[in-house]
Predict the structure.
Amino acid sequence: MRVRAFGATLVLTLLLLSSHTAVWTAASKGDASVASAVASMPVVLQGGDVAIIVNQKNPARDISFDALRKYFKAERGQWPNGSKVVVAMRQPPGQSERSAILRSIYGWDENYYQKYFRQGHFNETIQQAPKELNTTYAMIQYVYYTPGAIGYVRADQVDTSKVNVLSVDGRRPGESGYRIK
């Protein structure tokens, strides 16, 4: 394959989205052929793992994956200290961190997620669906100002001056075996 880049360096990034996302980067100069892939990383998000964040007043520092799933599915509504759990989710559907949470924690796709909370609200088995927020900044601010809030952001975007990061089953984002990707 020949690529003409008019003397500039051409960086071709191809995101292959499937159950495992791969990022391939190839570079070439001028009218040379595109070099073979120089970097390949199996990642879901370019920024890495998704960090589970909580309000700083929340005494929790570690959570089991099963408890995390129950909080996000609204099956458990109180923290061990008795405060109300308020789950926050990113908008829009298809947003990378949201997709990672749906896949990793819920084990669902977007359609099933929507159906689950609509049906639970209709049947009155779920009192409150997750709060929908549009930006990372909004997520951090919401968790910062809401006692009992739990949400998520890319691990490289956490503001530890405002929120705490939970380890999941004793593992923190970036550590081997961390499950939220």
